[in-house]
Specification:
With 261 residues, the chain is an alpha+beta fold. Helix content is 17%, strand content 44%. Bound molecules: the ligand N[C@@H](CCC[C@H](N)C(=O)O)C(=O)O.
Length: 261
């Protein structure tokens, strides 16, 4: 069969997207999703998403996310932003969306050409001597480093991702350095891709909250420069933790195609 797909990217984090409202693919086809994401034997992407029918009256659609290894995973922030842009392209939404992903309900708005995606509230941030750890829909290890441009993100990220306490389940690993007031440079090693990606949405969200918790910034609007472009994270804080967290940035359709399956 020929499968119609769309390719999107959000600050260089790239995704294959399938309109699965008619259930044209089954969610457990790990082999197919891995091949579609393969940069040599398939289309090539950091992950794959299915846009599915909503499961309740409040939602516009359902998001299902798979890493490049073909396995369904936890939340993808850049993926969520791309899926909102795709839903708008399909006419499923206009400029506002409510949808459910694996980590729960999300609200989004498209404004000034950028997708603003509300992330889940975060109440727990673990602080250690060398790093912080938190879950922003996906698990993230956050480390402040010097000379980020020359940092060996792949080797260090891979050893942290596979080592204690994460082991097989793994964690994404983010490296951050301050650029200027309220602006930070971030590079991320992503589990499930098992490599550095050009940007990670749940990753920069985790970095922004970590920087605020560790008092490296007192701003509640943080600009994040990733190798794939700039993202902004805004949030509020009260006694329960961080809430009203928004991940803001571009999400673009790159091409549409058909692949033989
Ligand atoms: N690129 C994503 C994160 C995708 C999930 C991650 N690889 C995991 O398995 O935890 C993002 O933009 O958030």
């Amino acid at each position: 069969m020929n499968l119609t797909f769309y390719k999107y990217q959000g600050t260089g984090n790239d995704f294959v997207i399938i309109d699965n409202r008619q259930s044209i693919v089954t969610k457990n086809d790990t082999k197919l999703f891995k091949r579609l994401c393969d940069r040599k034997f398939g289309i090539g992407a950091d992950g794959l998403m299915l846009l599915e029918l909503p499961e309740n009256d409040e939602d516009d659609f359902t998001m299902v996310y798979f890493n490049a290894d073909g396995n369904e995973s936890s939340m993808c922030g850049n993926g969520g932003r791309c899926l909102v842009a795709f839903a708008s392209f399909l006419g499923v939404i206009k400029d506002k969306a409510t949808f459910t992903a694996i980590d729960g309900k999300h609200y989004a708005v498209i404004k000034d050409g950028l997708v603003q995606l509300q992330m889940q509230d975060v109440s727990t941030i673990e602080e250690y001597d060398s790093h912080l750890f938190l879950d922003t829909g996906s698990p993230h290890h956050v480390m402040v480093v010097d000379d980020l441009d020359n940092y060996d993100v792949v080797s260090v990220g891979r050893s942290i991702r596979n080592g204690a306490p994460y082991y097989e389940a793994g964690s994404n690993v983010n490296f951050v350095e301050k650029a200027t007031v309220g602006v930070f440079n971030v590079r991320t090693y992503e589990r499930g891709v098992e490599d550095e990606t050009l940007s990670c949405g749940t990753g920069v969200t985790a970095v922004a909250l970590s920087l605020h918790t560790s008092k490296m910034t007192d701003k509640k609007e943080v600009r994040m420069q990733t190798p794939g472009g700039e993202l902004k994270v805004t949030f509020q804080k009260n006694e329960l933790g961080y809430h009203h967290i928004f991940l803001i940035g571009p999400a673009e359709q790159v091409f549409k195609g058909e692949i033989v399956c």
